[in-house]
């Protein structure tokens, strides 16, 4: 659509919004603000191929219904927010082709992690700047996962 600029702060007023697909608008830039967490009826968040940068806000874990989350091919940096582990209905997660750093978060009793995404069938983490070993607790036999991409992800120790 050729959209340009930043997400307006009044996007939080779209309280009934279920699908937000702004993909392939290279002119969309700026940081994804914490107010994205106020879109509690959002089921589908697709921001592929835009020019967002900075950290993925921890408030993304405040979404209660998403089944699809794709932030692929932006310039998101910093760690993967452990709060994404709150997204219990998530079946697809794509964080690939960004500049994410650190390790993949797993829960440890006091913090959440992606190991809580039991319904997630597809995990895409490739082409980031993540580091450390793949956490053994990330996957379990109770997960619905059928597809995992982590190419060009990190050096395993």
Automatic annotation (TrEMBL):
<keyword id="KW-0325">Glycoprotein</keyword>
<dbReference type="GO" id="GO:0016020">
    <property type="term" value="C:membrane"/>
</dbReference>
<keyword id="KW-0808">Transferase</keyword>
<keyword id="KW-0677">Repeat</keyword>
<keyword id="KW-0433">Leucine-rich repeat</keyword>
<protein>
    <submittedName>
        <fullName>Putative non-specific serine/threonine protein kinase</fullName>
        <ecNumber>2.7.11.1</ecNumber>
    </submittedName>
</protein>
<dbReference type="InterPro" id="IPR032675">
    <property type="entry name" value="LRR_dom_sf"/>
</dbReference>
<keyword id="KW-0732">Signal</keyword>
<keyword id="KW-0723">Serine/threonine-protein kinase</keyword>
<dbReference type="InterPro" id="IPR001611">
    <property type="entry name" value="Leu-rich_rpt"/>
</dbReference>
<keyword id="KW-0472">Membrane</keyword>
<dbReference type="Pfam" id="PF00560">
    <property type="entry name" value="LRR_1"/>
</dbReference>
<dbReference type="GO" id="GO:0004674">
    <property type="term" value="F:protein serine/threonine kinase activity"/>
</dbReference>
<keyword id="KW-0418">Kinase</keyword>
